[in-house]
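Pasting two entries for a bug report.
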Amino acid sequence: MVRTRFAPSPTGKLHVGGLRTALYAYLVAKQNGGQFLLRIEDTDRGRFVETGTMNILQSLYWAGIVPDEGVVLQDDKVSQIGDKGPYIQSERLPIYKKYTDELLAAGNAYYCFCANERLEEVRQFQQKNKLPTGYDGRCLKLEKKEVEAMLAAGENSVVRLKMPKTGETVWNDLVRGVVKFKNELVDDQVLLKSDGFPTYHLAVVVDDHLMEISHVVRGEEWVSSTPKHLQLYAYFGWQPPQFAHLPLLLNADKSKLSKRQGDVAVEDYCAKGYLPEAIVNFVAFLGWNPGTEKEIYSMDELIKDFSLEKVSKAGAVFNVEKLDWFNREYLKRLSSNEVTKRALPWFEKSDYFKDQKLKIKDREWLAKVVVLEKDRVITLADLPQAVKFIFELPGYQKDLLIWRKGTIEEVQKILPELKESLNTISIQDWNKLILEQKVGEWIKQKMYSTGSVLWPLRVSLSGQQNSPGPDEIAEVLGKDETLRRLDVAIVKLSS
């Protein structure tokens, strides 16, 4: 069975790069009828963040990437499901100790007692002399009795991988093709730290094997570590999984995507009102190209069409303008009721909702308000400000009421007549279709130009240079408020 995993470290909020890794791993599992697992790699205790796991889970669930096994959300709490756990590495320390002892007993790993100061001196010497950087193997030369004596004395130690220094490590990467490394350039990596916690390199191999992971999808920064991992698989006599190393995510200037140039956490985009469907669709294209002109993909369509073979080796630029395009497209496709439901939290946070005089009448009415701007905004968070004019007429200058080369005298004549005509329409008939019809007939009867009537009407109702059509606005405002706003405009013109 195809089994993939996403194994983030809980060091803060989930990065969009992590979301892409999780998405690709999820798609590979689902398109093969397999299982997607979430494991938490929390062995770096210095960078551990208490809320990190919850943030990762909430971000994944928000995006619709729900684990079949491992660390999950149950009743809004972090939980674990499956028979291959624990799925949180800090709960697996005895397992890592067992396999470390096996490596030591077989002579495939060794104790290292070098202090950090010595390691730094070695590194500086290597850099100064333009040598490959890495551990120089000093403790590998220690006699067994020396090691035993130092351990008995309680000297600080770590356990290192004994990497062969001849030959090559070769594997066929599902994204990068055939990859080769000379073993002499691969460091004797620390496997078990002095605090008893494993490094990523030991834990990831042990966990992926015991959890029967068939495909490892991860970022390209782990390419250089793969020879160490493959050597561990060989030492243990285990079949390694297939590897797929994804390209970096880049800023517009081709630098590595980072907080310094904008938001990088999934939570940030959620808070800004981006739709999860848009984020998932956008992230899927950060490296993957289906080879067609199609750009809008549902999750089910991604599961059907995605393939690691069509993921590029080159870095993918995180283009926020493209993300905005995706989000607008998805907003257009949602019903007004669905957009209203999703936008409600942003409306409730808006300043004008705190004023008791400006409460929403009902959800159905708010949906009509939302329709006015849902195809024009970028995110859900933009909606409250975009439709604020419905709740509160903005202040505007009377010159804004004048259509192109028209005159103030012309508008002073038209608006009172138009108000009188609108007043004859009953409340029962007050909808945009009838309003459009009646106003159109009135314009023809009066022989006015369309712009000279509709422009000042729209400005009167919106108080803005750019806004939806006057018929749409009038329907949402209702007859009384429409006539009141026309009165405001008429008074402005006479001042």
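Entry 2 (this is the one that rendered wrong in the viewer):
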Amino acid sequence: MKITGPSNPNLQSLIKELKTLSITNKVNLWKRVATELEKSTRNRRKVNIHQIQKHSNDGETVLVPGKVLSMGTLTKQVKVAAWAFSEEATKKIKDSTSINQLMKDNPKGSKVRIIC
């Protein structure tokens, strides 16, 4: 069986950036996110908003190595970073960002929680 990775060039470059950032800053968080994003589309994480609400605390940054879906409501003050957001999820989440932007803003990965 032939093992393939993601074919999206943007995702491939993001995975490379995550791995180099992990090595340069010695932060295993970025390596874990890279391995999650390397999975096939079927196995990639899909997280609903109610799961973010349940497993996060105020003031945290939540990182989803996959797609955020719109089921539920978010009342906590959290920043959500993910590879992709559904249209409804972007309307419900006030403070959403991409993984690229999170890497630039917080290269050490402090106060970041991965939700899978």
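Dev reply: Rendering is fixed now. As a check, the viewer should reflect this: The first helix runs from residue 9 to 25.
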